[in-house]
Amino acid sequence: MDHWLHSLSVLWLTLVVFAATALVTGLIYGTMRMLTANGRTRAFKAVSPGMLPPLGLVFGLLVGFLAAQVWGDSNRARRAVNREASALRTVTLLAASFPGESETRIHALVRRHIEDAVKLEWPAMAQGRATLTPIPAPLAEAVRVTLSLAPQDEGQRIAQREILTMLQDALDARRQRIIISQSGINWVKWAGVILEAILTLIAIACVHSESRGTSAIALTIFASAPAVSLVLIASQERPFTGPLSVAAETLQQVMPP
Questions:
Q1: What's this model's pTM, rounded to 2 decimal places?
Q2: Among candidates 234, 218, 197, 192, which has minimal Cα distance to 69?
């Protein structure tokens, strides 16, 4: 699926998918009517209706596998963003153990990291071009600042260790969300599910080839199911793309003042 399709609103995505499904269904129906008009009804009537349940079952399993992958990626993306936000919030709170310039510096670095994530990384993740190559400079600097601190008591030593742990956690969560942003359903899986739907439509058209009205109704009813399934999957295929994507609001909420 192209990036432009994932960027559509749910309404426009629904219209595009249903229009494409209607076109394919119309072609199958028209072809079947043309073939039956040429005296091939007997051959199509010989197709057993018993084919339809297995075809429908296979289609349902394929859709289920794709849906499980898509929703699993979406949940992992949300968990990664929430984990990063939680770690940064903890860093901000623990920085108060080093009042003065050190606290102000750590707050500024956390703020800059969140701003870079929102303005630079999120658009890159939405387009699937975010990579792990660039090192997040603000977090790397925050680690250096924390290591350079000189704790005066046991409380500050504990705070220093916890800040370093939380910064590492934030870095790991960032890596996870970037990796997840590159996930998606490859063209082989899309082709498999679409081909299975088309084969089922052809089987339905063959079974009901004797009656135009019955064939049209059966094809319309079944074609609606793949269309709805494809809209549900395509609208959430890429966790950071489209109207249902994972937003950066959670990170923005923990931005230091």
A1: 0.84
A2: 234
CA distance 188 to 166: 40
Task: Report whether 9 contacts 243 (CB < 8 A).
Answer: yes
Token code pair at residue 88: 């940064």
In whole angstroms, what is the distance from residue 83 CA to residue 89 CA? 10
**How far apart are alpha carbons 178 and 15 in whole angstroms?**
30
Task: Please count the other Cβ atoms lying within 10 Å of the Cβ belonging to residue 66.
Answer: 21
DSSP state string for 62-89: HHHHHHHHHHHHHHHHHHHHHHHHHHHH
> pLDDT of 38-49, one tens digit each?
666 666 667 778
- pLDDT (tens digit, 9 = 90+) per residue, 127-155? 888 999 888 999 999 999 999 998 888 99
CA distance 210 to 122: 55
SS3 (DSSP) at 127: coil
Nearest 5°: CA angle at 197, between 24 and 232? 95
